[in-house]
Specification:
The chain is mainly alpha-helical. Helix content is 55%, strand content 8%. Helix 8 crosses helix 9.
C-alpha cells in the first residue's frame, strides 16, 4: 500500500471551503492508501509567530472537525507535527543542502510577501518553510502528496531536495509524486474565496439557523439589482454552491428562473440552503458527541503520535547512519 502525507495548519473550526477543498478528498484517499494527516502547528508559526496563544485550542477544534467529517483514526494516522521531533531533525539536515535560490523562487513565498503586508515575514523560518515541508513529506517516505495545482510547485521542490540528498549520499527517499486533486475554491458570503480571515465563511459546526442566515445574505449576480432584473447564474457566487449541492432538476429550475427573473435571489438560495443543512446533519451529530468527550481528540492524537514516531524514527536512523552521525 502506497503512502500519502498531507497536513493543515491549525485554524480552529473548519468551513465549507475546507470540506470541499481537502477533507472529502482525504476521506476517499484513506480507503486505498496508508495516510498520515498531521496538524501543521510548526508551520503556523511561520506567519503567526508573534501570536501563538491560540494554536493549542485551534488544534483541538480542527481535529474534532476531522473526526466528525469522517477521517478514521483506524485507517489514517492523525497527529501533531510538533510532537514528532524527527521532522525538525530532517529539516535541519535538508537545510544544509538546499540552495537559497531554490527557496527565493518559490511562487507562494513571493505572493505572501506581497499580500501579508501587516506581518514581518523577513525570517529564516518563512523563507525556509518549504524545506520543513519536504521533511514532513519524506520522513514517512511518501509516494504521493495530494495538492491542488497552486501547491504543485511545493512538491516539486521536495522532489529536487530528495534528488540532491540521494545523489550526495545514498538513495533513501522516494521522489514523491503530485496527486492533483480537483479542489473546488468555494466562494464565501462576499464572493471572495471562503476564508476565516475574511469573515465570509460558513463553518461546518454552524447550527442550521446560522447556516440559513449566512447563506440567505450571500452575494449574488450584481446585475440583479431589482427582483425583476434577469441575471446570469455563472456570475453568481451562490450558484457555485448550487452546482455542488443541488440536483440537476433543481439547477435547471434556478438557472431558468434567474435568467428570466422568474424567481428572486432569496427563493433561489433557499433551494440550495436546505441541502447544505441536510448534508451537514450527520457531522453536527457526531461533533456534538465529541464535544461532550473532548478527551477523545487527545487520545486519537496520542495514538497517532506513537504510530508517526515509530516510522519517523526508523527513517532518521537510516539518515544518521548514512551521514555518519
Amino acid at each position: 500500500m502506497e503512502t500519502i502525507v498531507s497536513g493543515a495548519r491549525p485554524t480552529g473550526r473548519l468551513h465549507l471551503g475546507h470540506l470541499h477543498g481537502a477533507l472529502k478528498n482525504w476521506i476517499r484517499l484513506q480507503e486505498n492508501y496508508r495516510c498520515y494527516f498531521f496538524v501543521a502547528d510548526w508551520h503556523a508559526l511561520t506567519t503567526d509567530y508573534a501570536t501563538p496563544q491560540g494554536i493549542g485550542q485551534s488544534t483541538i477544534e480542527m481535529v474534532m472537525d476531522w473526526l466528525s467529517v469522517g477521517l478514521d483514526p483506524a485507517r489514517s494516522v492523525l497527529f501533531r507535527q510538533s510532537r514528532v521531533k524527527e521532522h525538525a531533525e530532517l529539516h535541519l539536515i535538508y537545510s544544509m543542502i538546499t540552495p537559497v535560490p531554490w527557496l527565493e523562487r518559490n511562487p507562494t513565498y513571493k505572493e505572501q510577501i506581497k499580500e501579508l503586508t501587516g506581518k514581518d515575514l523577513s525570517t529564516y523560518g518563512f523563507l525556509g518553510y518549504p524545506v520543513l515541508q519536504a521533511a514532513d513529506i519524506t520522513i514517512y517516505k511518501a509516494n504521493k502528496v495530494p495538492v491542488g495545482v497552486d501547491q504543485a510547485p511545493h512538491v516539486e521542490l521536495t522532489r529536487e531536495i530528495v534528488r540532491r540528498f540521494n545523489q550526495l549520499y545514498r538513495s533513501i527517499f522516494p521522489e514523491p509524486e503530485v496527486l492533483l486533486t480537483e479542489t473546488q475554491k468555494l466562494p464565501g458570503l462576499d464572493g471572495r474565496k471562503m476564508s476565516k480571515s475574511y469573515g465570509n465563511a460558513v463553518f461546518l459546526s454552524d447550527p442550521p439557523a446560522e447556516i440559513d442566515r449566512k447563506l440567505s445574505r450571500m452575494m449574488t449576480d450584481p446585475a440583479r439589482v431589482k427582483r425583476t432584473d434577469p441575471g446570469e447564474p455563472e456570475k453568481c457566487p451562490a450558484f457555485q454552491l448550487h452546482k455542488i449541492y443541488c440536483t440537476p432538476e433543481e439547477i435547471e429550475f434556478v438557472s431558468t428562473g434567474c435568467r428570466t427573473a422568474g424567481i428572486g435571489c432569496l427563493e433561489c438560495k433557499k433551494v440550495m440552503i436546505k441541502h447544505v443543512i441536510e448534508d451537514l446533519a450527520p457531522f453536527r451529530e457526531k461533533r456534538a458527541q465529541l464535544e461532550k468527550r473532548p478527551e477523545v481528540v487527545e487520545e486519537v492524537l496520542q495514538a497517532g503520535h506513537q504510530a508517526a514516531q515509530k516510522k519517523a524514527s526508523e527513517t532518521m536512523s537510516e539518515v544518521r547512519e548514512t551521514l555518519g552521525l
